[in-house]
Amino acid sequence: MPYSLSLAARRVFHWCALAACLTTLVACSKSEAPPAPLRSVKLLTVSGTDLIVGGEFSAEVRARVESRLGFRVGGKMVQRPVEVGQRVAAGHLLALIDAQDYQLAAQAAQAQVSAAQSQRDLAAADFKRFEALTAQNFISGAELERRETTLKSADAALNQAKAQAQAQGNQAGYARLTASHAGVITAIEAEAGQVVSAGQPIVRLAHDGPRDAVFAVSEQLALGLKIGQSMTATLLSTGQPLKGKIRELAASADPVTRTYAVKLALEASTNLPLGATVNVHAAPLSAGQAEVIKLPTSALRQEGAGSAVWVLDEASMTVNLNPVQVATVDGNQVVISGGLRAGQKVVAAGVHVLTPGQKVTVYVDPAAKAAAPTPSGR
User: Fold this and answer.
1) Collapsing DSSP states into helix, strand and coil, what is residue 267?
2) For domain 99-173, is the CATH number 1.10.287?
3) Which of 173, 176, 195 is nearest to 76 (CA)?
């Protein structure tokens, strides 16, 4: 009997403990989450500014004209007497292909000319004889007209044979690849023993004459450059000063680097070594048509595959994410090409501790606040 009373007491104790735990859990579930902290943020007002183009660009000296030369006929290349870096004169032999087949074709065409010439001479003799017979009324005028037609046909056949012989002779001559201008061989693209096709590049020839300095700029910088714009440069090896004008601006960006090629026509540059490095100096230029929005890099937040900034809603004093398109980087600032408009206020720092719709206050620098003038009478 005492054992039964002790067991009952233990059961009552367990039930009381369970009830106390349930009461505690219910009380915790009804408690509200603490409010989000009210953060102070540094703001800046978005405004458009002209992109300033300037600086120094590393450029390579190239020939104004560079040709990729190839045969006008196909065949097996048997000789290439030039090498990279060799200077050649106009008419210099660059390569040779086996011309035996073309020479045989030219001989056959010449034989056809001889045959056509014989046929034409025979037709001319017949016409002359029949013309004399017609004058004596031994044959009719219709027969003479037939002989005249045969003579005209023989003349046409002879002219055709001569044209074909000329074409075959040209084909045989095309087996020799010669330099079209004086210059320097900059590349070899085929070797002796190789079977090449008509038009396939064999050598690359940089023509003697004016030189260009070729360099690349970003899309935004390209907007500040114009054809005909004057620039200065310095030859890196000797320090020789150079002057030039922009001759060409690429119409589209390079698919890999996404940069735009610029060709600067150098003055008095015929003796500059090909491939030399020059430093092109671009004076600061305001590109009025290239008004852009700049933000410090600290204002950007990566969202997925793109970038975004926190924009302040002044009515509710809350911040929300706004996707933007970044065009390029200019020092410690980024150039924004889309997604913002002038007059908006964006958070300039602390972008990784904010949440959408969070209430904020505007941070005021204590030093600036202390330096502010005190209203009179206080």
Assistant:
1) coil
2) yes
3) 195
Q: For domain 53-65+206-288, which CATH number applies: 2.40.30.170, 3.40.50.300, 3.40.50.1820, 3.30.70.260? A: 2.40.30.170
Identify the CATH number of the domain defined by range 67-95+175-204. Answer: 2.40.50.100
Both structure tokens of 238: 């000797």
For residue range 165-223, list pLDDT tens digits in order: 999 888 888 999 999 999 999 999 999 999 999 999 999 999 998 999 999 887 767 87
CATH 3.90.226.10 fits 40-51+292-365, yes or no: no
Which residues are registered as beta bridge partners of 320? 311
pLDDT in tens, 350-361: 788 888 888 888
The structure's pTM equals 0.54
pLDDT of residue 31: 53
Strand positions, DSSP E, 80-229: 87-88, 93-97, 176-178, 183-188, 195-196, 201-207, 211-217
